[in-house]
Design a protein that fits this description.
The chain is α/β, with parallel strands linked by helices. It has one domain. The protein has five helices and nine strands.
């Protein structure tokens, strides 16, 4: 009979060495995987912005102007969302990014100023993938519970640029209503009395050839973050709600709201917002709707669509004067990356 040799197993030290090597490899691999995922998410977000920009241009071809940020009657409250207000730019452009059936399910929302019909709000709870940035994982979460009617407002991540400034005695985003262009008080490198007209404002959308600073130099759309992870009453990132922080940016570069993804205390003025400066979501929840800046979960900045339809990434440490000149259609300032 032959002799059998005893089988030799792993020693404890060898096993620990193997586990350590595997842990190191995983540690090296995870950042690479996360970078790939973020690159894919950023590409998807860029494509969303591109589709929305094309929709705005198609609306311009059909109507002769870009869509207004929101439609309002004279008695509608520009500062609160508890009463009547009209459809926003996304509702008006639904047929131009493959949402025709949803648009056709309500009476023509473009007639709101004449009719005051509120039935357009029945579509407020529809989740639309094109309106969600994949990086903002909570964007499709808890619906917004505020507004009139209360509850059921689906989230979104893209906003129209209404321009304007916000200082004491100057009433924020609605200063550009009808295409008006208020003067900036100056500071942070911005010359005093620089004009601050928006691109898509209350009851007004620009004609592309009339954008004084040029379509390639002026922001038309920008990202905003969902407030769903902070509170169901936080209205930031609500696609059908045509107010600052929800689907509009405006009143930027003044007061305490200077840059995209800014970490300023109480930066966004929109009723019900939660102040979370540590996560770059500063807000004055007790303030009326007056101003809000672009925000995203992308590392280092936000994506915007210029009025010519191109998409850019804007760093969050951008100079305040540069961000101002990018957002205002008629300031006359020259900026560069």
């Amino acid at each position: 009979m032959g002799l059998t040799r005893p089988r030799r197993g792993f020693t404890l030290i060898e096993l620990l060495v193997v586990i350590a090597i595997i842990a190191i490899l995983i540690g090296l691999l995870l950042p690479a995987v996360q970078k790939v995922r973020e690159a894919a998410a950023r590409s998807k977000c860029s494509n969303n912005l591109k589709q929305l920009a094309i929709a705005c241009h198609a609306y311009h071809d059909a109507v002769g102007t870009l869509p207004p940020a929101v439609l309002m009657q004279s008695g509608d409250n520009r500062r609160e969302v508890t009463g009547n207000f009209g459809p926003n730019w996304i509702v008006l452009t639904l047929p131009y990014f493959e949402q025709g059936p949803l648009y056709n399910s309500i009476p023509d929302p473009a007639n709101y100023r004449a009719t005051g019909d509120q039935s357009w709000k029945t579509i407020r709870g529809t989740t639309i993938p094109t309106l969600l940035c994949p990086t903002d994982g909570g964007a499709a979460g808890t619906p917004y519970t505020g507004s009139s009617p209360a509850g059921g407002w689906a989230r979104g991540n893209y906003a129209a640029n209404a321009g304007s400034t916000h200082i004491p005695g100057s009433t924020g985003w609605w200063n550009t209503e009808g295409g008006s262009s208020p003067k900036h008080p100056g500071g942070n490198g911005i010359p005093a009395d620089s004009l601050s007209g928006g691109v898509m404002c209350i009851n007004w959308g620009a004609k592309l050839p009339n954008i004084a600073d040029g379509t390639s130099n002026t922001v038309m759309l920008a990202e905003v973050r969902s407030g769903a992870s902070l509170s169901a009453d936080d209205p930031r990132g609500v696609w059908a709600l045509g107010y600052p922080g929800a689907s509009v940016i405006g009143g930027m570069t003044t007061s305490d709201c200077y840059r995209p993804n800014g970490d300023e205390h109480q930066a966004d003025d929109c009723r019900g917002c939660v102040n979370n400066t540590a996560d770059r979501m500063g807000a004055c929840g007790g303030c009326a709707f007056q101003q809000a800046n672009a925000r995203s979960r992308h590392v280092g900045g936000v994506q915007v669509s210029m009025a010519d339809g191109s998409v850019r990434f804007v760093k969050q440490d951008i100079a305040i004067v540069t961000w101002f000149s990018m957002c205002m259609r008629d300031d006359g300032l020259v900026w560069s990356d």
